[in-house]
Design a protein that fits this description.
The chain is mainly alpha-helical and about 55 residues long. Helices cover about 50% and strands about 0% of the residues.
């Protein structure tokens, strides 16, 4: 019994590929953030960037 909501096989496969590559994209971004802790906003960052009052 078909409900009329079935999509073509090529469309379903491309959506799974997009999902897979999106996960890889987030994983690589997470690895970059974990390997460079200076990207975090913390008190250590304030030593590198002077405030506008110090300029």
């Amino acid at each position: 019994m078909a409900t009329g909501l079935e999509y073509p096989w090529w469309l379903r496969i491309t959506h799974w590929f997009n999902f897979f590559f999106t996960i890889l994209l987030f994983r690589s971004g997470y690895k970059i953030l974990m390997s460079h802790p200076k990207f975090y906003w913390s008190d250590d960052v304030l030593h590198y960037y002077p405030s506008s009052a110090d300029i």
